[in-house]
Design brief:
Elements lengths: L2 H15 L7 H13 L9 H11 L3 H10 L4 H5 L6 H16 L18 H20 L8 H8 L4 H23 L3 H12 L4 H8 L3 H27 L3 H9 L5 H8 L1
Helix pairs in contact: 1-3, 2-3, 3-4, 6-7, 9-12, 10-12, 10-14, 11-12
Length: 265
């Protein structure tokens, strides 16, 4: 089946899945072709979810209502293992709505950036977990700096669709981290090795360099930030993905740098 025929099949399937939601044929075809042009594999593309995302980005009332019932309504279940306070769950729901569906400063809503690589539900779930972690940090809750995504990555408590995405893209992300570390200046690589492999305290590292531990802490923070930025750039380049998709994908990975850097260094 040629690409054009495949797109028409996807369009028919999306219309069947969302009979009360209207997206113009040419708009949908152009959106799908744009995603395929970015290198998204046919097997990876959630074509019906792209249809819903397009309609939501354009402000369709029926589409937003379906997004609410299919995805926003699941936020409580997604946070169930980490949050029991109904008021907090409701706050996270509202933040997810705003983050996904409301444009800012003239920009389209974030859901317009959904690439279709992986289920829309997985994309929304990552936003919910990030917003939950952000709420804890903003509220100054003890332990709120422990990102729920890191907990999921360490415990393996992923839904089946997230587990599939993690397995598919983890080698690419790992390669990004290896390339990022290889590109660091020698001092930064040494600092990371001393901290994460040798387990030296900041004071001990400071004595080696003749500086105080605050300076070492700043150096390490800068090195970590450089690694993360370079890894993001590697993944973005390899997948031709939008920033939002890269962040969502990295959110599925084992992002605890103490573990990641120890293994790579």
């Amino acid at each position: 089946m040629g690409t054009s025929d495949l797109v028409e099949t996807w369009l028919a399937a999306a219309r069947a899945a969302f009979p009360d939601i209207e997206v113009a044929d040419d708009v949908y075809r152009a959106a799908i072709q744009a995603r395929l042009a970015l290198g998204i594999a046919v097997a990876d593309l959630e074509a019906s979810d792209v249809y819903l995302a397009i309609a939501c980005a354009r402000g369709g009332v029926a589409a937003v209502r379906r997004f609410e019932t299919d995805h926003i309504a699941r936020v409580g279940a997604w946070l169930g293992a980490h949050e029991k306070d109904r008021a907090v769950i409701d706050e996270v729901r509202q933040r997810v709505r705003a983050r996904a569906l409301v444009g800012r400063d003239g920009a389209p809503p974030r859901i317009a950036d959904y690439s279709g690589r992986g289920p829309l539900g997985a994309w929304v779930r990552v936003i919910a977990l990030r917003e939950h972690a952000t709420w804890h940090r903003d509220a100054g809750v003890v332990g709120g700096d422990d990102d729920a995504l890191d907990t999921l990555a360490r415990t393996g408590e992923f839904s089946p669709e997230l587990a599939i995405m993690r397995a598919r893209y983890q080698p690419l992300v790992a390669a990004g981290f290896r390339a990022a570390i290889a590109g660091l200046p020698p001092r930064d690589r040494t600092l990371l090795r001393l901290c994460y492999v040798d387990g030296l305290a900041l004071e001990a590292i400071g004595r080696m360099y003749g500086v105080n531990k605050s300076t070492v802490s700043r150096w390490l923070a800068a090195a970590r930030a450089s690694v993360l930025d370079a890894a993001r750039a590697h993944v973005r380049s390899e997948l031709h993905a939008a920033d939002a998709d890269v962040e969502s994908l990295l959110g599925l990975m084992p992002r605890d740098l103490e573990l990641s850097l120890h293994g790579i260094l």
